[in-house]
Amino acid sequence: MLEEQTVKKLIKCALEQRKFSYAPYSNFCVGAALLAENGTVYTGCNIENGAYSPSNCAERTAFFKAVSEGVKEFRAICIVGAPKDETPNEFCPPCGVCRQVMLEFCGSDFLIVLAADQEKYQIFTLEELVPMGFHL
Ligand SMILES: O=c1ccn([C@H]2C[C@H](O)[C@@H](CO)O2)c(=O)[nH]1
Ligand SMILES: [Zn+2]
């Protein structure tokens, strides 16, 4: 369970982070806010590249920032995404690669908050987004 004030904080962080998105090729800007078990929020944006494949999603940017600082236990992530000059209106579910990264570090009760704004959001468990996920 996430307290409503925590959800609101994560949505605010993800919306703010979305402004730093570097997406000159897709013009689709994504922001993420990852809540660690220790209470720290790690933010991330998508970062594209002219060679395309080196591009990184907002979610993985947030995970890799946290893991690179020694933090590997997480409670939830909030994701917001929309075309560059638009206000988010629809949900932006994580891509398959990011879902696999979530599986690496998170349990099935990890929460994914898909949000458009402070009022419009929906919360899913990792188990719901990745049934029968692959683990080594
Ligand atoms: O959940 C998502 C979906 C897409 N993107 C990025 C990847 C790419 O830069 C752009 C368009 O796919 O959006 C994310 O960061 N997270
Ligand atoms: Zn992704």
Write the layout of secondary structure elements.
Elements: H1 4-18, E1 28-36, E2 41-45, H2 58-67, E3 74-83, H3 96-105, E4 111-115, E5 121-125, H4 126-129
Parallel strand pairs: 3-4
Antiparallel strand pairs: 1-2, 1-3, 4-5
This protein binds 2'-deoxyuridine and zinc ion.
Residues 23, 26, 28, 30, 46, 48, 55, 57-59, 79, 81, 92, 94-95 line the site of 2'-deoxyuridine (DUR).
Protein name: Cytidine deaminase
Pfam family, one: dCMP_cyt_deam_1
Organism: Faecalicatena acetigenes
Describe this structure as you would to a colleague.
- The chain has 136 residues and is α+β, with helices and mostly antiparallel strands.
- The protein has four helices and five strands; from the N terminus they run H-E-E-H-E-H-E-E-H.
- A five-stranded mixed sheet has the order 2-1-3-4-5.
- A hairpin with a 4-residue loop joins strand 1 and strand 2.
- Zinc ion (ZN) binds at residues 57, 59-60, 94-95, 97-98.
- It comes from Faecalicatena acetigenes.
- Its EC number is 3.5.4.5.
- This is Cytidine deaminase.
